[in-house]
Amino acid sequence: MKRILVTGGAGYIGSHTTLELLDAGYDVVVVDNLSRGHRSAVEPARLREVDILDTPSLVRVMQEKPVDAVIHFAAYIAVGESMQNPGLYFRNNVSGSISLLTAMQEAGVRNIVFSSTAAVYGMPTVVPIPETLPYAPLSVYGETKVMIEKVLAWFGQTHGLRSVCLRYFNASGADPAARTGEDHEPETHLIPLLFRAIETGKPATLFGQDYPTPDGSCIRDYIHVSDLARAHIGAVEWLLKGGESRHFNVGTGAGYSVREVVDAVARVVGKPVPHTWGPRREGDPALLVADSSSLRNELGWVPQDSALDRIVETAWRWYHR
């Protein structure tokens, strides 16, 4: 049985990927300092409460039993916070990743799947976005992901590390069996904020209704978190079979507007969504949609749960559990 180390496995995408790995027959050990993750999201026997900046402790975790690959989620993700506190993001995201790679090198682990982001592209000049676009991040958060991708490439060149960087778009939804779901604080993602507006009656503020899109609101590529988790498993299997280091977009190749998401939430929940419209947020592109043809063609990945109503339905089941 292959053993996978998941950093940040008590977080949103990490906990879903851990469940999918277990469902697929892998052994999993989770490293998380619980600063943003949730103890309840991980089986106690699998959790190692370790900070990724603690290199010796990471080595010890990897030496408990042989680790075949690492999936690395342990990062701070809030764009606004990254601009207000860049030091926090460079320390945790970049220095933490270097600590992890150093521990992997010492423990003899040579395969890593990295949780990257479409934010590495900034304001894309081509849509759907291909992996060949140059780096152009607009935030400290995006810059940290670019830096880690470059570090991974250098570790590959100098130490034979093999990596897959998955650049994903708008992760959403929840485990269909409601075993885990989205639970950020503060919450910044659209669908949970719309649920909160329904629950509290306090209108959600939506940003920008004058974009050059069919209904004036931003269009984003929403991918169900379970489909995203399965992409990570495909990437692990690619590496374990000897595949070369790669970058892949993870998205559906289609987009939904903010207005369409509001309508879907109202339809699934059966209640209107209180909301108001504010001005555009600086740096928000009108359209972000992935070209994920490489992932589909080379890893055989196909999204199964990313229809908009399915995303909302699973997210509501978790939120209203």
Task: Please render the helix and strand layout as text.
Blueprint: E1 3-7, H1 12-23, E2 27-31, E3 47-48, H2 55-64, E4 69-72, H3 79-84, H4 86-107, E5 111-117, H5 140-159, E6 162-168, E7 170-172, H6 190-200, E8 204-207, E9 219-220, E10 222-224, H7 225-240, E11 246-250, E12 256-257, H8 258-269, E13 275-278, E14 287-288, H9 293-299, H10 308-319
Parallel strand pairs: 1-2, 1-4, 2-3, 4-5, 5-6, 6-11, 7-10, 8-13, 9-14
Antiparallel strand pairs: 9-12
Neighbour order of strands in the largest sheet: 3-2-1-4-5-6-11
CATH topology of the largest domain: Rossmann fold
CATH superfamily of the largest domain: NAD(P)-binding Rossmann-like Domain
Q: List unreliable stretches of 5+ residues.
A: none
Shape, per Cα inertia axes: globular
Rg calc: 19 Å
Contiguous helical run count: 10
First-residue to last-residue Cα separation: 33 Å
The chain-level structural class is: alpha/beta
What can be said about the biggest beta sheet? 7 strands, parallel
The average pLDDT score comes to 95
Element string (H = helix, E = strand): EHEEHEHHEHEEHEEEHEEHEEHH
* Domain tally: 2
User: What is the CATH architecture descriptor of the largest domain?
Assistant: 3-Layer(aba) Sandwich
The proportion of strand residues reads 15-25%
**β-strand number:** 14
CATH class of the largest domain: Alpha Beta
